[in-house]
Amino acid sequence: HEAIETGTGTSTYSGKVPLDTTKAGGKYTLNDGKRGGHKTYDLGGGSSGTGSLFTNSTDTWGGGRQSAGVDAHYGAAVTWDFYKNVFGRSGIRGDGKAAYSRVHYGNGYVNAFWDDSCFCMTYGDGQGNSHPLTSLDVAAHEMTHGVTAATARLVYSGESGGLNEATSDIFGKAVEFYANNPAVPGNYFVGKQIDIFGNGKPLRYMDKPSKDGRSKDYWSSGIGGIDVHYSSGPANHFFYLLSEGSGKKTVNGFSYDSPTADGSKLAGIGRDKAERIWFKALTTYFTSTTNYRAARTGTLQATASLYGNNSKEYKAVAATWTAINVK
Ligand code: ASN
Ligand code: ZN
């Protein structure tokens, strides 16, 4: 006999969180019966297979090696809820089926990744095995690679690769805002909590991507030749500008200052609409070979279909692409 339960966990990055679990034979497991049976495994430093399903004698989780499991399980649940409640999408492939998560991958592994062949995501423990790569925005970023693989299938190189990466950053941060978790105020800095550099700085900045020293703020010819985590810059910047507008702004206590290539001033149409436009474009108009120019066209088609081609939203999308030099 199995029962769906709701426990609580103390996470590494998201404070105390509810966790949906399963009870069987007097024991609890990180098996989320409310979301397709999403399971979270402990790889125990291994790099293949599934290791062991997190199991506990009570439904209170966290501490030691469970903490990273709590983050991963929570991140998967919130990401599922975001896609379901905001876009009506049931699971990564829209078929109600769960993926699964694996934590404690390898030794001192400073990355996390989605793998479409196992339909799973995997998290390393970070430098010195002490900083798991399991923050909410990272979890949602990786799961969004699964959504992209199931929809536009943007090829992971060249400009389409940059758009693939940006899609993961965009919805990674959208999920964080959606969670509305007081321990994780929504922001536009990617991977701030995992502190990969050890100096408190995020991996990427959506308001001004070049702040990381590598990403591009604006499109230019040849941008498809750089790493996809940097050619994502203009699209991340597009999403920030479309949501919040240009210039100085403070959101949830975080301060931003977002420039435009042409000096134009943009007001922003709000994050919810910007998310809706990007999702509609991703799932309806983008293809595997969509580049920046085609992304402009695809998001304009999405905006016309959602808000009309005479709408203020349509004008804002056009002006925002122009502001990052995609004309
Ligand atoms: N964490 C990285 C990413 O999601 C892994 C990779 O480079 N594919 O982009
Ligand atoms: Zn990625």
Automatic annotation (TrEMBL):
It is found in: Secreted. Transmembrane segments: none annotated. Its main location: secreted. Its EC number is 3.4.24.-. Residues 152-326 form the Peptidase M4 C-terminal domain. Keywords: Hydrolase, Metal-binding, Metalloprotease, Protease, Secreted, Signal, Zinc. Residues 6-148 form the Peptidase M4 domain. It is an enzyme of class 3 (hydrolase). It comes from the Bacteria. Coiled coil: none annotated. Its cofactor is Zn(2+). The keyword Glycoprotein does not apply. The keyword Cytoplasm does not apply. Belongs to the peptidase M4 family. Extracellular zinc metalloprotease. This is Neutral metalloproteinase. It comes from Streptomyces orinoci. The chain holds residues 189 to 515 of 515 of the full protein.
